[in-house]
Fold each of these.
Amino acid sequence: MEQNPYTPPERQTPTIEETSTNSPVGPIIGTVIVIALLALGGWYFWSVLNDRPSAELPLIQGDVTPTEEESWVPPTSNSDDAATIEAELNAMNMDNFEQY
């Protein structure tokens, strides 16, 4: 008498549970919340930028007499001649330059 030691399990078909049809309300609410947060953040950033005082540069006068710090630099000419440029370089006292 032969007996089969292996007995296959009974086949059971998995039961499929019926899921209710989900409406896409969750993603829409999430999108609205994200857009609202972005809008509020942009509004806050814009209000902070408008409240900050602008950093205006000071007015620099063109015809101002040189101060003591600038007095070591001799006046220069607008000439492009090599001899004039060399004469200006020779006239400049570089010892005063090293103090600053």
Amino acid sequence: MKGIAFLCIIYISRLCTCGEVRGRNSATRKQGRNGKGVESTVNKDNDPPTGVPSEPDGSTLDLAEPNESLCYSFDYSLDDVPSRMIILRDGASVTSLTVGNTEIWASRDGVGCSIISVRLKDGEPVLVHVVVTVNGSGRSMTISKNMNKWTVGRSSGEFRNLRVETGSSSRFDIDLMLSEDSTNCRVFQAQLDGIPTRFYAPKAGFNGKKVICGRSTIWQCESTKCCRCRKEKKRATITRAHLKNDRPYLVQMTIKDSKDSADSYNFIYEDGNWKSINKITFEVKRLALKKEYQKEQNTSDEDIPSDDSNASTSDIDI
């Protein structure tokens, strides 16, 4: 999206940098899935830009049990944190999010979300990152659960507190030629803003020390370790590959260091080689690729729909 410097995802995406959402909050108490009262601070998004059409037919999506007719849903591990990625299907409109019977977010004037990333504890959602699309741009927000209360915003340390203890970590190469899960990597694919996109996430207990595509090395970790914690200085936590002719073409990866600071690395396959590019160039190339797929789906340029969504995930936890 243009509103957040270009994903996430895509994604790939800078972690833990979700923005605040303007708007009034109203506290409601609803019945939780376990029968206990759960307080939810619901964001009504009362300050959307003008010109946003009302969409009363927007659907409600339960993050605990996502409706497959509305979205793609994938469970995976993000840096040893159990996670769930939810990407809306083309034409789907979601203007309300719930966890069981508890509403945790509701839109005003039909402003819908396009991508949701969920962190799980004991199989239940406890931390939610959402990209909301408004007039072709996006803004991100975080909704967290604490003491049975859902609120917009987050406190430091929430993500790392959800990590599953694995004892030790094994390092491996993430090969973008894979199209299915392997022993150490979760691989899944969905249409992201009209582009076939494949995601690669190391399974719990594994760290990506190198990202390759067949025999070509795209990125690799420094060989030295942090002196204090003996961790590798950098690791790939999730990688997203936009496909062209069924092969990785645009790649964005989230790289973390031993202090859990994250950064986004962007690459393009051009002239037979993988080249590093900045976020602006990545977004330009992504939009051009999107238009190519639009042309394939239409008989003439006149039938190509206008590009207003620009759904990316570059600065959201995915």
